[in-house]
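Ticket #4471: complex job returned nothing on first submit. Input attached below:
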Amino acid sequence: MGGFFLCLEGIDGAGKTTQVRRLARRLGALSLDVVTVREPGGTGLGEAIRKIVQDPAKAIDARAEACLYAAARAELVAQVIRPALKAQKIVVADRFSASTLAYQGAGRGLPEELLAQLNALVTQGINPDLTVVIDLPVEEALARVSREDRMERLDEAFFVRVRRCYLRLAKEGGSRFAVVDGTGTPEEVEKEIFQVVLEALERCTK
Ligand SMILES: Nc1ncnc2c1ncn2[C@@H]1O[C@H](COP(=O)(O)OP(=O)(O)OP(=O)(O)O)[C@@H](O)[C@H]1O
Ligand SMILES: [Mg+2]
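Support reply: We reran it on our side without changes. The output follows.
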């Protein structure tokens, strides 16, 4: 389809949002045309869904939650990501399909195969060229974030499962995945992410 699709993943507090901004700045400095998106969000429906799933007062069934995130992703792909890639832009996403497998699959215990099919449906087969997993111990990540929203009040064991799933997906994903150490300073993590992104960009232009 053209363009280049990058995604940052990791448990809550890993530094995704911080690093999406920094990566976009770095790529922009190379005069590349960059579009950043976040999940859930980026469209009218997506932002409405974001409010629902992040409301601490709401207890949502795991299957319903999976469908809400999937609906937000379907809109984001159709309205923003697909057109941007078609226009040869670089898309940098704050979470994408791997989040569903890690959170609703490993975290909440839904069957990964069904979630993978749901992902295939809503992404129209558009997968990141590179997913960067920002990895760090659960305790360290959770210590960084305020525990106000619903997700972050889940127990530590939940995030241990999520983290383990990300690492397995990275192992299985070959060159479409990279794991970077998220324990360093924001500057250090930024440098490491930029390095793996440049390598992936070079691979694709060869
Ligand atoms: N390398 C780092 N070292 C220390 N603190 C960091 C680092 N990166 C980000 N932070 C801080 O940790 C907090 C969480 O970072 P950020 O919001 O980027 O994580 P996130 O992965 O997007 O989290 P969430 O999944 O909750 O959206 C923020 O307050 C941020 O300033
Ligand atoms: Mg974030």
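The first strand starts at residue 4 and ends at 9. Closing as resolved unless it happens again.
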